[in-house]
Structure to design on (303 residues):
């Protein structure tokens, strides 16, 4: 095993959350998907949604759309089947919390403000901070429903899909931001999304990615959209929007940035709001990020 992997592995297995330990073993050492599913289930509430700091910067125990979106990403990566109880409860939560009139999910609930959290998760600022939630998290959660279309009323799924596509068409050249791009990417990855919808969405995302990606290495210490945030693998459908030289430079940057303890530094903080809670969130986030970094480095043959 490479030194990069060995150091990151040690960090995740000793300091990461049990969920990220299971994810690392699943992706790199033939660990069972069932172990990932079991750890993920610990974050699921009675209403079927996810909370309990699954999104590290949101420490509230109550269910939220953003934490549920995070869970759906994990369910996607392990290929969870529709007959899994965790999946069925997740879909029921999404159907119950969806606003059909506005065709969106609000990214966090009012209860968010009662628990430690990053400043950007303040409930009263959600509409302004997240573009009325029309794409973030709605596009990502629409993708989550397309993972299991047999559990979703067809009319709802069709209406929601058209809303997401229309918003992508309208926002891509000006309004679409990093969070929207990430949410919409999960939409395009859904296993059962119709091919025509996928291609329409990807055309808009490629235009937006070409505008949003930060190619200057001196800016990568800030919370920017780096080349590898878009071109996560060489065959990523968004890779054509990124200069290959920027991808190569970003890979070199990630390798050089690994810390002695095996982790990677984060590009955000909220220690000024709650130092004690941030210390927990930072450790949780670093374990999650380490797994993502390893997946990207392996995809490019850098491990």
């Amino acid at each position: 095993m490479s030194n990069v992997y060995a150091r990151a592995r040690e960090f995740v297995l000793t300091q990461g959350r049990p969920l990220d330990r299971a994810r690392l073993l699943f992706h790199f050492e033939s660990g069972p998907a069932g172990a990932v599913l079991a750890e993920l289930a610990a974050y699921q509430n009675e209403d079927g949604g996810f909370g309990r700091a699954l999104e590290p910067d949101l420490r509230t125990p109550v269910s939220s759309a953003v934490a549920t979106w995070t869970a759906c990403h994990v369910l996607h990566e392990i290929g969870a089947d529709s007959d899994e109880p965790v999946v069925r409860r997740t879909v029921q939560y999404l159907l119950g919390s969806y606003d059909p009139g506005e065709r969106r999910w609000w990214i966090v609930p009012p209860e968010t403000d009662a628990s430690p959290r990053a400043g950007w998760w303040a409930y009263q600022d959600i509409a302004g901070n997240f573009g009325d939630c029309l794409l973030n998290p709605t596009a990502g959660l629409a993708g989550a429903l397309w993972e299991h279309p047999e559990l979703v009323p067809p009319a709802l799924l069709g209406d929601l899909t058209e809303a997401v596509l229309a918003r992508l068409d309208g926002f891509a050249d000006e309004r679409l931001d990093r969070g929207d791009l990430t949410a919409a990417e999960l939409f395009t990855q859904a296993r059962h999304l119709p091919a025509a919808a996928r291609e329409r969405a990807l055309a808009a995302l490629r235009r937006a990615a070409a505008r949003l990606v930060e190619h200057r290495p001196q800016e990568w210490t800030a919370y920017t959209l780096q080349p590898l945030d878009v071109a996560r693998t060489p065959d990523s459908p968004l890779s054509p929007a990124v200069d290959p030289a920027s991808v190569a430079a970003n890979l070199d940057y990630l390798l050089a940035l690994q810390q002695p303890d095996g982790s990677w530094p984060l590009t955000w903080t909220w220690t000024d709001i709650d130092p004690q809670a941030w210390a927990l969130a930072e450790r949780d986030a670093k374990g999650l990020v380490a797994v993502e970094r390893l997946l990207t480095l392996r995809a490019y043959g850098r491990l």
About this structure: The two ends are 8 Å apart (CA to CA). Residues 43-212 form one domain.
